[in-house]
């Protein structure tokens, strides 16, 4: 199969469906490997509002991942 990039650096794959995500690895100059990623199902979380020491805080039904929190706060100004 041949894929051609347009003027905006986009490549179209005929077998790909809208919303498909791919991992791209550059092996060397001119060689790329695309691997289709499985879709991630979003998890819903329930939050309870609780008063603690005079403040209202949200309490999740599962623990927070510290690494994910650091990554999210790194993008926050």
Salient structural properties:
about 10% helix; two-stranded antiparallel ribbon; mainly beta; two-stranded antiparallel sheet; about 80 residues
Describe this structure in words.
This protein has one helix and four strands. The chain has 77 residues and is mainly β.
Radius of gyration: 21 Å
Percent helix, as a range, is 10-25%
Q: How many beta-strand segments? A: 4
Runs in which pLDDT lies below 50 for 5 or more consecutive residues are none
What's the arrangement of strands in the largest beta sheet?
Answer: 1-2
Overall mean pLDDT: 89
In angstroms, what separates the terminal alpha carbons? 44 Å
The largest sheet is: 2 strands, antiparallel
Quick synopsis:
With 77 residues, this protein is mostly beta strands. The chain contains 1 helix and 4 strands.
